[in-house]
Amino acid sequence: MTTLAPSASLIETHRPSRGFWLVAGAFLTAMAFSTVPAPLYAIYHLSPFVVTVVFAMYAVGVVVSLLLAGHISDWVGRKRILIPALALEVLAAVVFLSSTALPALLLARLVSGLGVGLITATATAWLSELHFLDRPDSSSTRFEVVSTAANIGGLGVGPLVSGVLAQYVDAPLRTPYLVFAVLLLLAIVGVGISRETVEIRPERPAWRPQRVRIIGRRYLAAATTAFTAFAVFGLFNSLAPGFVSGTLHHPSRALAGLIVFVVFGAAAAAQTATSRVRPGARFCGGLAVEAVGLIVLATGMAQASLAGFLVGGALAGAGAGVVFKSAIGSVVASAAPEARGEALAGLFLIAYLGLVIPSLALGVATQLIGATAAMLWFTGALLALLATGALLAPKTSRDR
Q: Which keywords accompany this UniProt record (predicted)?
């Protein structure tokens, strides 16, 4: 891959600052759309297990997309990947609008996951390049804050918007998807007029799936804690809204969307707030906050307390956000430059397995032993994994 070197004339002519914000908006819109169904599942009248299966289809799509095509924008250009990826999200919206039957939901979630896998890798790289074209002598702070807000923050915006629309606007299973279909089409236009940052060469490398490399004890610590972080995100993207409407007897779709927004918003805010904290202190602090949040969350569920559920979710989300940021930083710092892409691919693969496996296990457990008991087991398992991650991390990493 060759990125275009910044120059005064290039910056003047192509306005990378405008492209930076257009790509950020497209990134946020796509990530928000990926979580639109979260507060709507109760309206579909699906069992907790079926909800987790529908959600797992999304995670499968993301993993497949990351492994097969997440890296090819380096060869063909960011725009040539991001526009088709956004088109996949529009297609998913069309499928959602076409039917409320289970096969349509499964297909729509799979298609959405395939698009998100492409969008996450491509938009992040593009934002970094546009940032340095626009501000070649600045730090990466703006890029890090904006990409985090678009990615993790977007995941919280989607349920908030869809929950409010479902609560107060007619056709709750159509209006949210129509709104986001329009926003996605506008995002495609914005991406289309943004500055390309990859110089496309006639010769291209032979295609191969993204290689995955898992190396060392420090890497295992990062992967284990990333798994727990995504398990928390998966819980609130799948089962939490149904628990609030069922067990806690708060059927408001707006409330369900707000709860998911609080978790992801806390994650994005905590990631931004800890940007200048030493890596070791950030890692330990994230583990502690996530652990406390899980305990408060489980206690709130056991006592059928909405306040406890909200506070626990916010704490667990904040801790998970910091833990995942620390995991990425640890892998980037420890992997050799030539192996960094493969190491990060492995980290994301394990993290997305954290979306699938715990959610499916929880879905099965809720059918057998009830939601509260299943959550207690879920909390215990994640606390054990957090402790494992802390023990695996080299002492030097914890002390830095």
A: Cell membrane, Membrane, Transmembrane, Transmembrane helix, Transport
Residue range of the domain that includes 133: 1-207
Exposure b/e, 342-371, CB count within 10 A at least 16 = b: bbbbbbbbbbbbbbbbbbbbbbebbeeeeb
- How many CA atoms, within 13 angstroms, populate the side-chain half-sphere of residue 284? 12
pLDDT in tens, 323-348: 988 888 888 777 776 566 677 778 88
- 244-289: pLDDT as tens digits: 887 778 888 899 899 999 999 999 999 889 888 888 899 999 999 9
Give the predicted TM-score (pTM) of the model: 0.85
- Residue 217: other Cβ atoms inside 10 A: 13
H helical segments located in the chain:
8-14, 16-34, 41-44, 48-69, 73-76, 78-98, 102-134, 141-148, 154-168, 175-192, 216-238, 240-246, 253-273, 279-302, 306-334, 340-369, 371-392, 395-399
Name 315's Cβ contacts closer than 8 Å, sequence gap at least 6.
266, 289, 290, 292, 293, 296, 297
CATH number for the domain that contains residue 167 = 1.20.1250.20
Q: In this structure, are 147 and 288 located in the same domain?
A: no
